[in-house]
Design a protein that fits this description.
The chain is an alpha+beta fold and about 180 residues long. The protein is about 35% helix and about 15% strand. A hairpin with a 2-residue loop joins strand 3 and strand 4. Helix 5 crosses helix 6. The longest helix is centred in the C-terminal third of the chain and has 16 residues. It is elongated, with a radius of gyration of 23 Å. The termini are far apart.
Length: about 180
């Protein structure tokens, strides 16, 4: 019932703190869904823990065919503030392109801020992969070393300096990180 109340309040109550993002933008609730029983019959319970109620078309109304139970990751990709970029026929947000390339979105953003188009920034990362620092890990998809997003708990842990993705450096990085974790 909490999802239903929140949906109704966001779309109909000007005193709701999020009204300007919903009702203030013209987002409406399907007339039948103003009755909880009819809403519940259409949507049912949350099918799994960790899912949130989401509109597939972010500019569309809360109505049959435009709502879903989505993961938090899927919902954060479905926001007005996301920058969508078409590259080689694929349309993705900047964060998804960064994930695909094995870099943070800052790598793409900095290039864009320097005057490149988003497509040029993506191509530049492909043509000139950035050297990475900090904790290292190897992805199974592209066998490229990328930065881990998990911050170090101990600033002295890890390896300083820059390494290219050669087998010797991978082994040295893994060896040094193992040594640091073991306190050797």
């Amino acid at each position: 019932m909490g999802v239903w109340r929140t949906m109704i309040s966001r779309c109909t109550d000007p005193n709701n703190a999020q009204y300007h993002d919903y009702g203030g933008r013209g987002i409406k609730v399907h007339p039948e869904w103003l009755d909880f029983e009819k809403f519940y019959a259409a949507v049912r319970d949350r099918p799994a823990a960790g899912l949130t109620f989401d509109r597939e078309d972010n500019d569309g109304n809360y109505e049959p065919g435009n709502v879903r139970w989505a993961t938090w990751a899927a919902q954060t990709r479905n926001k007005r503030t996301n920058r969508m970029v078409v590259f080689n026929g694929w349309n993705r947000c900047v964060q998804d392109w960064a994930n695909e390339l094995g870099v943070t979105w800052h790598h793409l953003y900095r290039r864009h801020k320097r005057g490149m188009t988003w497509q040029e920034a993506i191509q530049d990362v492909i043509d000139h992969p950035p050297k990475v620092r900090g904790p290292y890990r190897q992805t199974n998809q592209n066998k490229r070393i990328i930065c881990s997003r998990r911050p170090l708990h101990n600033p002295t842990e890890g390896v300083s300096g820059r390494f290219h993705a050669s087998n010797n450096n991978k082994k040295k990085v893994m060896y040094d990180q193992t040594q640091a974790r073991a306190g050797l």
